[in-house]
Amino acid sequence: MRSWRRGARAVAEPLLECLEVSHTYRRGTPFEATALQGVTVRIVAGQIVAIIGPTGSGKSTLIQHFNGLLRPSSGVVRVNGMDLWAAGADRRRARQQIGLVFQFPEYQLFEETVRRDVAYGPRNLGLDEVAVAERVDEALRQVGLDPHRFGERSPFTLSGGEMRRVALAGVLAMRPQALVLDEPTAGLDPRARRELLDRIEAWHRQGITIVLVTHNMDEAARLAGHVIVMHEGRVVLQGAPAEVFGREADLRAIGLDLPLAARLVRELRRRGLAVGDALTMTQARRAILTALRGRDHGV
Amino acid sequence: MGFSGLTIGQYLPGGSILHRLDPRTKIIGVTGLVVMLFFVPSFAGLGGFAALVLALFAVARISPAYALRGIRPLIVLLVFTALLNTFFAPVADGHVLFRFGPLMATMEGLRTGLFVAARLILLVVVTSLMTFTTSPVELTDGLERLLRPFQRLGVPGHELAMMTTIALRFIPTLLEETDKIMKAQMARGAEFDRGGVLARARAFVPVLVPLMVSAFRRSEDLALAMEARCYRGGAGRTRMNELRWQAADVVAFLVMGAAAAAVVWVRR
Description:
The structure holds two protein chains of two kinds. Chain A has helices spanning 2-10, 59-66, 91-97, 114-124, 129-142, 147-150, 160-172, 190-205, 217-223, 241-244, 248-253, 260-270, 281-296; strands spanning 16-25, 33-43, 48-52, 74-79, 82-83, 98-101, 178-182, 209-214, 226-231, 234-239. Chain A is α/β, with parallel strands linked by helices. In chain A, the strands form two sheets. A six-stranded mixed beta sheet of chain A has the order 6-7-8-3-9-10, with helices on both faces. A four-stranded antiparallel beta sheet of chain A has the order 2-1-4-5, with helices on one face. In chain A, a hairpin with a 2-residue loop joins strand 4 (74-79) and strand 5. By secondary structure, chain B is mainly α. Chain B is built from eleven helices and two strands, in the order αααααββαααααα. Chain B has helices at 17-20, 23-37, 43-60, 64-69, 75-88, 107-133, 136-147, 157-187, 197-203, 205-228, 247-267, and strands at 96-100, 103-106. Chain B has a two-stranded antiparallel ribbon. In chain B, a hairpin with a 2-residue loop joins strand 1 (96-100) and strand 2. Chain B is flat and about 70 Å long. The termini of chain B are far apart.
């Protein structure tokens, strides 16, 4: 919350904006399918934005427009003010600025060693070997892998969680301004999940704008300062987490739920404890303790 | 990017008479039509053949334009074939159109070239009619049933059909996977459409390695899933949908017979 407000004041022009973007797959065939309809979103530098929505709501299609991997059927996508589909637009630059990490990114690893795999992106940027090596070491440290211990190993001998971190390092090594993560915690065990969320927050503190695609409401509530809700290819709701998660009925209607903490305080309230609102477990704990203290003192 | 332009081998679900024909009829029918195509002697004959194919498309309620889109990837091959025939047709003393160094284009050669190209187009269109109207499962069912008499000769009909089904089933999956991996590497600055042939081939290594890894993983998963459901080959296996000849199949064979008779008559 705090950070995006700060960012919004500092930067007038959004880092990324989609204006009235629509996308139809397999246009002109019997399999035509409209995935996006008139989607307008703005991502301001310094934010953590969560994009939530049920499966098939167009989240993954939308983020592939962010760095020009998909061309909108209609509408405009701008990165740092540059129209990605104007004649002569440098989409490679946009791909460096907006680092996109797909779901299960560990399936994109291909090199013989971790170091060479992470170096793939920086090499494609045309950097010299010294700069590449420097970025690889930095990126590996950012994901919590010791370059000396892991650098020369084959990525295919690592555990699933480690492979995912190598893949993340591969995108971080491009030094993007924004990191777009599609379900980054899918398939991770609880501890790896927690560690990754901590890391995402750390990258944000280092100045990287974060866009998080998720259908885990707890992750969205914990990290995001701005939440975008998608349903059937449209943005149906967006705003601060407190605002968005205040619309329980609307969320339930499209198959989404409230964060666990919000459900907990609601249930307690239903059972007669006068407890305040909460979106994260930390907030819930504080609200419940306050409520209990109030009750014990007979206030 | 992507492979959305690919229409060959695609199934277009529908309820037309052609969709409901026994797959065996369609396999035999298309094989018959392909054989006939190679016996059609003249441009006029090809015209008649094209008319029949157009009529079949109308019956199937599929736009022939959609089938023609399937030809796009073959344009290079078609042009190459036509040129090859134009210059190297075995004509002793044809009417020379023009010379290109030691090469000589003759009127007859050009005719042959165009004829062969037209025949190839019809070949693709007619076979795509079968895949448009028959789901892969039906297709392999029909194939398995047709191969049954040869089982005694040691032809593993069931295994062939099962392998084909699996292969067909995974084509879209692997194409999707390829698309996804390409995009993931493009997000890391990869470019697949720049540089010479060698550079382009090298650019595909970061796609092919993950693709192979995932194909092996998928095949292991599939083998496990099949064993978990007690798959042990074709012996004693019953099926949910038994194939039965219908009246429409008889009609289809009559149409085929008429077409074959026409070809024989034209060649007489």
